[in-house]
Amino acid sequence: MELVGRHFLRRPRWYLLVTEFDWQADGDPTHRPFWEAATRRTLLIQQCADCDQYQFYARPFCIRCESDAILWSTACGTATVYSVTTVRKQWVPGFTPPYSVAIVELDEGPRLLTNIINGDASIGDRVRVVWRERTGLPPVPVFEPLKSELGEA
Q1: 145 with 118: CB under 8 angstroms?
Q2: What pLDDT is recorded for position 94?
Q3: Which residues pair with 54 in a beta bridge?
Q4: Three-state secondary structure along the chain?
Q5: Count of domains in the chain?
């Protein structure tokens, strides 16, 4: 609690000042469940217990009804490409061009920024989550084209 004048200011449990938090030891408490699930190759998104709205990225409250009754829910892992572009210039070490950057809309509703790997995808194509490994860090969710039963992309 913070002393303001002669009164203590009560902050919500999720509210932490940067100086009150050991980022190296604890990470971001709002996103911790997401990254813990990622180590198990499980894609988690938040769901409001009051209005059933799904959301991604993690927040301490619902973006629809502002409730703080937020639960973590396992996403089915499939999505539709909402937008996609091909990066042809080296911007980030370790990402050798060309590579695809996309916004995908999860079947549950939220959209997330990701990479498309293992093939090309166009707007409207179906994709599924796979995981990009990182040394010393949890894997990152990326997506690949969802193959049909005929083996087509």
Answers
A1: yes
A2: 79
A3: 47
A4: CEEECCEEECCCCCCCCHHHCCHHHHCCCCCHHHHHHHCCCCCEEEEECCCCCEECCCCCCCCCCCCCCEEEEECCCEEEEEEEEEECCCCCCCCCCCEEEEEEEECCCCEEEEEECCCCCCCCCEEEEEEEEECCEEEEEEEEECCCCCCCC
A5: 2
- Could you tell me the CA-to-CA distances from 67 to 15, 47, 50, 54, 86 in Å, in that order? 15, 11, 7, 13, 38
- 69 & 80 share domain: no
The CATH number that applies at residue 141 is: 2.40.50.220
Rg (CA), the chain: 19
Domain co-membership, 110 together with 91 = yes
Residues 103, 106, 112, CA angle at the centre, nearest 5°?
35
pLDDT under 70: residue ranges of the chain: 1-27, 148-153
Q: Which amino acid is at 133?
A: E
Look at residue 92 in the predicted model and tell me its pLDDT: 80
pLDDT attached to residue 129? 98
